[in-house]
Structures are given as C-alpha cells and as structure tokens.
Write a structure and sequence with these properties.
three-stranded antiparallel sheet; mainly beta; 6 strands; OB fold (Dihydrolipoamide Acetyltransferase, E2P); 7% helix; 1 helix; elongated; Lipoyl-binding domain-containing protein; 73 residues
C-alpha cells in the first residue's frame, strides 16, 4: 500500500521523502520510505490505495526553466 507524504502541486527536492510503502499483510515489516529521484513539481499522485509492482504512484515534472522546455518539443 502506498501512503503519500506530499500533495499534488507540491514542489519537491531530489532525495525528499515522497511517500511510504507498507505491506498490510506483513505488519512485522517496517514501512519503506520512497525518495524523489529529481527536483520538480508533483503533477500526478496516487491516492492511498493498494499498489502492485510497476504501478504509477506519482510523477514529478522536472524543475526546468520555461524557455528550456520549448526546445524539448
């Protein structure tokens, strides 16, 4: 189960804790903290819900200047 520690639209830094994964069927196991791989803005966020391997939990849009984005598209 994914428990988010950030809000939609929130700015995050690389390495910041963005949520936890817990295994409800295994309360003896500690929660596993998840860190953001990059700085940016949370643009997609899964609600507290059961999750499986490979599920999208959240998306962080990179913190790039607006003029640099134009060259990407």
């Amino acid at each position: 189960m994914f428990i988010p520690a950030v809000d939609l639209g929130q700015t995050v830094t690389a390495g910041q804790t963005i949520g936890q994964l817990i295994e409800p069927a295994r309360p003896d196991l500690p929660a596993r903290a998840l860190a953001s791989p990059q700085a940016g803005t949370v643009v997609c966020l899964r609600a507290i819900a059961r999750s499986d391997d490979g599920d999208c939990l959240l998306q962080v849009a990179p913190a790039l200047p607006l003029d640099s984005l134009a060259s990407l598209y």
